[in-house]
Task: structure prediction
Amino acid sequence: MKLKQSRNRVRIIVNREDAKHASVSSHHVSPSTTAPPSSSSTANEISTESCLCQAQLILEYQDLCNHSNLSLSGLQTLTTELELICRENTDLKVANSELVLFQIQFDGTPLHLLHQQRQQLLQA
Result:
């Protein structure tokens, strides 16, 4: 973290690690110039702590957005796979019912029973 002080403002450049370990109650951060205790230096310390807190919140928000995007991408992939599995399942049911019909026809079962059994298989 770097502090740059101009007349009445303190500019803070924060890297990710500093923001993760920063806390609002931290008293280790102070302007780079040593000044006698005054309301101005107290205001600078409060401003610095506020900036660190805001930087930490921004990084946490970015992490949450990244996590959300990863989760959404995973859900989209799973949805696509689920649709493919459902189609494959439907195709397998049709193929199975055709095999059952073939077996029944081969055994000599009447046609109306074949139709009923096929409907039952398709509904399952």
Remarks:
- The chain has two domains: 2-76, 86-123.
